[in-house]
Amino acid sequence: MTAKNRICLWYDRDAEAAAKFYASTFPDTRIVEIQRAPGDYPDGREGDVLVVLFEVMGIPCIGLNGGPAFPQSESFSFQVMTEDQAETDRYWNAIVGHGGQESQCGWCKDKWGVSWQITPRILAEALSNPDRAASKRAFEAMMPMRKIDVAAIRNPIAPEMPMRRNVSVSHRSRIPIRKPAFPSPDGSSSRICSRIGRASSPMKNPAWRESSRYAGTKAHARGALRKQNAGPAYVSKQASVYDSSRET
């Protein structure tokens, strides 16, 4: 099926060579058809390649051998999104190493003057980052580059590792500390919360609250919290308090 809209690229007389190079360099790229001039024209003769239909990574294009009147410029470019440094290097080196020319900020030209933006995806995401400070750092890192250095873009925007949700943090040391457990009447254990017990806790039962074992359990729970900041010196003392309460 013929595409409704296609990009027309004006070449001097090398549209076929350009299309073959693109097909050998980029994925999902192929030559669809080569059309020859049915008669002489100002910049060619009958039988010369006049039009090359090809696709560049799925985009339908027309290569027109129209002569030197209208050279290519940066006003048009292909942007190729890459996933890592290896893919970036592969396309960049293929274009520049085949008679092309380096430019700035990930731009380069092939030997026929067509401009290409070899853009790592992380750069596009960094520049659209809602954190404007991170976006600015990535932008400033990009500006002096020719080929984009993925690591140099990633480092200014790398987020700090998030704190795990199942740990609490000591307000003194800022070191993650696991919340201790204390025994419940039925032999199971429950986690200490910011308040002793929850609505479903047996400590909400008035009969349990009046028992001597509740006092010992509560003391053990408080001791466990103190132990986090007081260190090993608290262990034996709190153990004796808890044991004595259980005996009663």
Describe the model.
- This protein is an alpha+beta fold and 248 residues long.
- The protein folds into 3 domains: 1-71, 2,3-Dihydroxybiphenyl 1,2-Dioxygenase, domain 1; 72-159, Roll (2,3-Dihydroxybiphenyl 1,2-Dioxygenase, domain 1), CATH 3.10.180.10; 168-247, no CATH class.
- Helices cover 35% and strands 22% of the residues.
- The protein contains 8 helices and 12 strands.
- The protein has helices at residues 15-25, 85-96, 121-127, 132-142, 150-157, 206-210, 212-230, 233-247; strands at 7-11, 30-36, 49-56, 59-65, 77-82, 101-102, 107-109, 115-120, 168-169, 176-177, 181-183, 189-191.
- Strands 1-4-3-2 form a 4-stranded mixed sheet, covered by helices on one side.
**Class from helix and strand fractions:** alpha+beta
Beta-strand proportion:
15-25%
The largest beta-sheet arranges its strands as 1-4-3-2
Total count of strands: 12
CATH class of the largest domain: Alpha Beta
Low-pLDDT sequence parts: 160-185, 187-201
Terminal CA distance reads 90 Å
| Main pleated-sheet profile | 4 strands, mixed
Number of helices: 8
CATH fold-level name of the largest domain: 2,3-Dihydroxybiphenyl 1,2-Dioxygenase, domain 1
CATH homologous group name of the largest domain: 2,3-Dihydroxybiphenyl 1,2-Dioxygenase, domain 1
Label the overall shape.
elongated
Residues in helices, as a percent range: 25-40%
Q: Averaged pLDDT, please? A: 78
* SSE string: EHEEEEHEEEHHHEEEEHHH
